[in-house]
Amino acid sequence: MITVAEALAAVLELGAPLEQEFVPLGEADGRVLASDVAATRNQPPFSASAMDGYAVASTDVSEGDRFKVIGEAAAGHRFTGAVSVGEAVRIFTGAPLPEGATRVIIQEDVLRQGSTITLRGNLDEGLHIRPAGGDFAVGDIIAAPRRLGPSDVALLASMNIAQVPVRRQPVVAIVATGDELVQAGEVPRDDQIIASNSLGLAAMFRRAGAISRVLPIAKDTPTSLKMALSLAEGADLLVTIGGASVGDHDIVADVAETLGLERQFYKVAMRPGKPLMAGRIGKMAMIGLPGNPVSSMVCGEIFVRPLLDRFLGLPASARRRTSMPLSKPLPANAGREHYMRAVGANGAVAAFDRQDSALLTVLSQANALIVRPPNDPARNVGDMVEVITL
Ligand SMILES: Nc1nc2c(c(=O)[nH]1)N[C@H]1C(S)=C(S)[C@@H](COP(=O)(O)OP(=O)(O)OC[C@H]3O[C@@H](n4cnc5c(N)ncnc54)[C@H](O)[C@@H]3O)O[C@H]1N2
Ligand code: MOO
C-alpha cells in the first residue's frame, strides 16, 4: 500500500490544465480565469461627485459663504461650463465634476434661495470627490488563475470585459457499479439499496467546477460494466464507484484493463478509502473509488477535488489543513491515515464515536475531517489535531 501523499501525487499526474475558452460574462461565475485580463478604461472615467449637493471652486469655505448657482450636473449629464470662485453647480451623486470644481458641499449643509446658496454651520468636512481612476485605471490586471465569484463578475463588468477567458470545465463521467443499486426515485427490491454516492459525488464535482455526467448503473457483469464504461468516452475523468475490493464481484479493475487501463496504483494506506485505484484509459484519467458511501465521498474530497483543480489550472495540492484542539479524547489510531468525521465548533473539534464508512448520516452532520497519522497514539482534550474543513 502506498501513502496518501504518494497516491495524491500520482493522481495529480493524471491531469493537466485544460484549454482556454471564452464565455459571456453572465456565465463566468464559478469559472476559473485562464489568462490575466486588463482594464481598458478608468473607473470612474472622470472625477465624480460622491454626494448630492453643490460643486464649488473653493476648498476653504465657512458658515455664511454665498454662491451663485450657475447650472446642473447629473449622473450621465455633464455640466459643460466651468465653475469659478463664488459660483456653484447643482450636482448629483455620480455626476462628472465640472471644470474648476474642487469640493462638493452636501445639500444638507446648504440653504437655497432662488439661484443663491448660503452655507450653514457645522459644515461636513469631506471634499466628496471620487478621483478619475480611483477604483481602477487602464492596464490594471485581474490575475489568473482565479476562481471567479460574484464580486469578480461585477468588477469585470465595470471593466467592460464582456467575454471572459476561462478554462474549459472538466467533464467527469461517474459510473456506480453493483447489482444491489437502483437510482433514487426507483423502487428497490428487498435486497437492493439506492445509489447514493453517484449523486453525492456529482454534486461535489459540480461545486468544484466540473461538469458531472452520471451514467447508468453498471451491473456486476463484465458486459454491463464495459457498456457503462464505454459511455464515458470523451470525458476528461472517469470515476467508478464500488467493485474495487477483493470480493468475487469486484471486477472494475479487470474490466477497465480490458479497455486499456494503465494502472498507476491500487490500495492506499488510508481509512476510509483503502481500495482506491487510479490510472489512465487512453487520454482519460480514471479513479476507481471504493463503494462504501463515506469512503467514496472522502476520497472525492481528498483526491478528486485536487485533480479537478489541476484540470482547471488552479494550484493543485493536498486539501488545506488547520490545527485545532480536541474537545473530546480520541483512541489510538492503527496503521492507516484516518480521516475521521468530526464537528468543529467554538475553536475546538470533536470526532463522532461512530466512524463506520457506511454511515452517511454521520457524514452529513460533519463539517470537518480530523486527519490522524498512522499509529497516532491516543489523544486527550486540548491536544492539537489536523483538520480539513468540509
Ligand atoms: N475481505 C475484505 N473485504 C473488504 C475489504 C478488504 O480489504 N478485505 N475492504 C473493505 C473496504 S475498506 C471497503 S471500502 C469496501 C469497498 O469495497 P468495494 O469498492 O468493492 O465496494 P462494494 O463491495 O461494491 O460496495 C461496498 C458497500 O458500498 C455499497 N455501495 C457501493 N456502491 C454504492 C453506491 N453507488 N451508492 C451507495 N452504496 C454503494 C455497497 O452496497 C456495499 O455495501 O470493501 C470492504 N470489504
Ligand atoms: O477503506 Mo474502507 O473505505 O475503510 O471503508
Please describe what this structure looks like.
- This protein has 390 residues and is an alpha+beta fold.
- It has four domains: 4-17 and 169-311, 3-Layer(aba) Sandwich (Molybdenum Cofactor Biosythetic Enzyme, Chain A); 22-40 and 139-166, Alpha-Beta Complex (Molybdopterin biosynthesis moea protein, domain 2); 48-130, Beta Complex (Molybdopterin biosynthesis moeA protein, domain 3); 322-389, Beta Barrel (Beta-clip), CATH 2.40.340.
- The chain is 18% helix and 30% strand.
- The protein has helices at 4-12, 150-158, 197-207, 222-230, 252-258, 293-311, 360-365; strands at residues 20-24, 32-33, 37-38, 48-49, 53-56, 66-73, 87-91, 103-106, 110-113, 116-119, 129-130, 141-142, 146-147, 163-167, 171-176, 181-182, 193-194, 211-214, 237-241, 261-266, 270-271, 277-281, 284-289, 322-325, 337-345, 348-351, 368-372, 384-389.
- Helix 1 crosses helix 6 (293-311) and helix 3 runs parallel beside helix 6.
- Residues 176, 178, 180-181, 193, 195-198, 241-247, 250, 272, 274-275, 290-293, 295, 357 line the site of ligand LQZAQKY5.
Shape: elongated
Average pLDDT, rounded to a whole number, is: 97
**Which kinds of small molecule does this entry bind, naming each only once?**
ligand LQZAQKY5, molybdate ion
The CATH homologous superfamily of the largest domain is named MoaB/Mog-like domain
Mind telling me the C-alpha Rg? 31 Å
Q: What proportion of the residues form beta strands (DSSP E)?
A: 25-35%
Give the number of DSSP strands. 28
Number of helices: 7
User: What CATH architecture of the largest domain would you give?
Assistant: 3-Layer(aba) Sandwich
Helix content: 10-25%
